[in-house]
Write a structure and sequence with these properties.
The protein is of the alpha+beta class. The protein is 47% helix and 18% strand. It contains 26 helices and 27 strands. Helix 13 (392-419) runs antiparallel to helix 15. The termini are far apart.
């Protein structure tokens, strides 16, 4: 067993781990090595598969993901964004206050990672490249420290209450001056650990704000704590002075305990809602056994694997890369890809996917794709993108937060001045209550925590959210447009028969169709390739020279026969192949040779069959029952499309649509004021998916890195479309509930605090409970997805719709 030396990036990670805190270590300059950039970023705008480039310095703009430490609120996110934007060469910075992650776009010709990371540190925050296995350990350490602060605050609060109770309960003359002074001194001593240890994060954050001339939600809270302790200390040291009438150690320790209780619970709930992202990103093992040339095995880090390596994966381990099983058999947990927990049997020759778990015995895998080229990396890219985004409502709350905090501090100052002449001690506590009770934590948490909870719940069930704002858009959608092939229909089509043209044989026609179709991932092409494989036919001596996919039509290719004669072939629909339309309603794919610019010579056709997904009718009925108007647009023959629509219960149908026709139909619906959601297979529906208000790419065959949709459904369950729609509506309801509660709470509490009717401890309790209520309300989204219910009336309505006279064609569709 060999022991490899840690590379510079790993050494830096270990330094951070050993420190126990999320901060920039002294050797951060190691990340300036261009070879390290691909480990925590990629060229801006490029898919994950293009993270590894030949010369990173030639890339005009890099996009890096980092994990942040020391954040407590939305204004922290704004502070970090402002600090990054002041660095020359940083083009854009998006910081999420909910996930504590940032996405930074930077120009390598103007700046290096160590420089913009140093800017984050100078602003008072920690930063670490987004390698979540390590970030998880650091977050667990943060949870332990938060728990210790909470325990210290709780223990000291109980002791202080014991010493404060006699002063509240005693009648005049019961307590001597010496005894009252002793109780005050005892409370002061016990409050010191609360101020120095439990309140540490609040004071550090406030000091950071003062140094950087910014403001966050911790500044008014820290001021309230400090004022309360100073006023009480002055009353303890000088009982006859202006503040000697009463001390407030009990209020101080109580509201510190309540605030820490709320933050600790928020921390736990935030980790739970972000668990889907972490669960996905932490699935890859740190190391794996790789076969040596002499047949032995060595353990290496996953980053050192290359295509062609053979690795041994033990039971319970995750597959480290995409590859093919070459020895052994097992069952794999592919919930990462499908959202289903049912294990899939794997035998020699089957493909395995990075991130799926080996549930059986040891197996050997030949590596095909590694690192950023794997489907796992594409999934992580989608989830990272969503985790660092800010929905529109969250951006509005962030913009409101800073001005609101300034108003709060001015209101506290005005209230203190107003009450000072009558009672200086009471005036200071009124100001403290205002500072604490009006902190807009709940307002800033209202939107992002709900959106991320919904995105995490969807990810666990096999739906990836590319764009958080799409949840709000989907909730407002009133029209849903389906594509047919690979969406409403089952992913697997089958070739029923091969009909060669005169002078041709069926086997060569099938073999050549498979040779061309192998260059496409369209369901029709896959069916042709599968039929050739099942019948064990091939095209010996024929060579594919080039191939091009024509969206919505088929494939064009140049092939060379055994006599070295080059043929230009077309494989696709009857118009594309220059053939007549089938009159018997059959679904066929045609193979033809080009002769001249337009004329084609038929070589034969293959008759196909496809079936409606078993859950399609229930899904359409559920969507219709929820108020959606359902349309079906397809490039297939109109007769086949009409038949499929009747089976699914869809009334608005149009067949024989080119991609341009679909886009025209979509724009026509939008011109009528409709909010349109589009469901396609992600293969040839790019323009239409991009043109819809919100879109789904459906099916396992979707090239994730190239998909232009807002949601990607990884599995085969069409019902997830309806469930995602219902969850989006529930999410928007919860966001509105949270915003109404947060705004109403502040509107009610400010007058009470200004009038002096709200003590500091109650202000702390109110602030903590308001934030906690917002998080708990959002946590309802982490449960199971909404269950689809379709009433008999809805089913009957759908049936009447499809048996009624055909609706007029959509505007703009030929």
């Amino acid at each position: 067993m060999s022991h490899e030396t840690l590379n510079p990036s790993q050494a830096m990670e270990r330094t951070v781990l050993d420190s126990g805190r999320l901060e920039v270590p002294g050797n951060i300059a190691l990340l300036d090595d261009p070879l390290e950039w691909g480990s925590f970023g990629r060229p801006a705008g490029a898919p994950a598969a293009q993270a590894d480039v030949a010369d990173p310095l030639q890339v005009p703009l890099w996009e890096s993901n980092v994990v942040l430490g020391g954040m407590h609120c939305a204004t922290c996110a704004l502070t970090i964004e402002e600090a990054l934007r002041t660095v020359p060469g940083v083009q854009r910075a998006d910081v999420s206050g909910s996930t504590h992650r940032a996405k930074v776009q930077w120009n390598p010709s103007l700046v290096r990672p160590s420089q913009w990371m140093a800017a984050i540190q100078k602003a008072g925050y920690g930063v670490l490249p987004a390698r979540d296995a390590h970030a998880r350990e650091l977050r667990q350490a943060e949870n332990r420290r938060a728990l210790w602060r909470w325990l210290v605050a709780g223990f000291c609060m109980m002791q202080v209450m014991m010493y404060a109770w006699p002063a509240y309960d005693a009648k005049p003359g019961d307590l001597t001056l010496e005894m009252e002074t002793l109780l005050r001194w005892a409370s002061w001593v016990i409050s010191i650990p609360v101020v120095l240890f439990a309140c540490g994060p609040f004071f550090r954050s406030a000091w950071r704000d003062l140094r950087t001339r910014s403001i966050s939600m911790d500044l008014p809270v820290a001021l309230g704590m400090l004022i309360t302790f100073v006023v009480s200390s002055m009353g303890t040291f000088d009982p006859a002075g202006p503040f000697g009438k009463e001390v407030y150690y009990d209020s101080l320790t109580m509201f510190v305990f309540f605030l820490l209780s709320g933050r600790w619970l928020e921390l736990r709930l935030r980790d739970k809602t972000a668990g889907a992202l972490e669960a996905v990103m932490n699935r890859l093992p740190d190391s794996v056994e790789r076969r040596l040339p002499d047949g032995g095995w060595e353990r290496v880090t996953v980053r050192r694997l290359q295509a062609g390596d053979v690795v041994r994966v033990l039971a319970g381990e995750a597959f480290p890369a995409d590859g093919q099983l070459v020895h052994g058999q097992t069952h794999a947990d592919e919930a990462l890809l499908t959202g289903e927990s049912t294990a899939v049997r794997k035998v020699v020759g089957d493909t395995v996917t990075a991130g799926s778990f080996n549930l059986g015995g040891p197996v050997e895998v030949a590596v095909d794709m590694v690192g950023a080229q794997t489907r796992f990396a594409q999934i992580v890219e989608l989830m990272e993108s969503a985790a660092s985004q800010k929905p529109r409502l969250a951006q509005l709350a962030d913009r409101v937060a800073k001005p609101f905090l300034v108003v709060v501090m001015l209101a506290a100052l005005a209230a203190g001045v107003y009450w000072w002449p009558s009672d200086p001690g009471h005036a200071m506590m009124v100001a403290v209550a205002i500072l604490i009770v009006t902190c807009p934590c709940a307002l800033s948490l209202a939107t992002p925590v709900a959106m991320l909870s919904a995105a995490g719940s969807l990810a666990r069930h096999g739906v990836l959210v590319r764009n958080l704002q799409a949840l709000e858009t989907l909730a407002e959608a009133d029209t849903l447009v389906f594509d047919k092939t690979g969406t409403l229909t089952q992913d697997g089509m089958r070739v029923l028969q091969v009909q060669p043209a005169a002078g041709q044989a069926s086997a060569p026609v099938l073999a050549l169709a498979a040779l061309v179709g192998a260059q496409s991932v369209h369901p029709v092409s896959r069916a042709v390739v599968q039929a050739a494989r099942e019948q064990a036919v091939d095209a010996p001596g024929w060579t594919l020279l080039e191939a091009q996919e024509v969206a919505g039509a088929g494939m064009r290719a140049r092939v060379q026969d055994p006599q070295r004669v080059v043929h230009a072939l077309r494989l696709g629909s009857w118009p594309f192949a220059g053939q007549g339309q089938p009159q018997d309603g059959r679904q066929c794919v045609y193979l033809a040779a080009e002769q001249g610019d337009a004329a084609v010579q038929p070589w034969g056709f293959l008759e196909l069959s496809e079936g409606l997904r078993p859950e399609a009718r229930a899904t359409v009925a559920a969507l219709a029952q929820s108020g959606m108007e359902i349309h079906l647009l397809s490039g297939d023959r109109d007769a086949a499309v009409q038949q499929m629509a009747r089976a699914a219960g869809i009334a608005h149908v149009q067949g024989e649509c080119s991609p341009e026709d679909k886009l025209d139909a979509l724009r026509a619906l939008q011109a009528q004021g409709r909010h349109v959601a589009m469901v396609g297979d992600g293969l040839n529906d790019g323009p239409v998916l991009a043109g819809a208000h919100v879109s789904f790419a459906f099916g396992r065959s979707v090239p994730l890195a190239q998909s232009r949709s807002d949601f990607v459904v990884l599995g085969d369950d069409l019902g997830l479309i309806a469930q995602t729609t219902l969850l989006a509506r529930k999410t928007l309801r919860i966001v509105r509930q949270n915003l109404i509660w947060a705004a109403g709470y502040n509107a009610l509490s400010i007058p009470l605090a200004v009038m002096g009717w709200m003590p500091a401890w109650l202000a702390g309790l109110g602030m903590a409970l308001s934030s906690l209520l917002v998080v708990l309300n959002a946590a309802r989204l982490t449960r199971q997805l909404p269950v689809l219910h379709t009433s008999d009336a809805a089913a009957e309505s759908a049936q009447r719709a499809v048996t009624a006279p055909a609706a007029p064609p959509l505007l703009g569709v030929r």
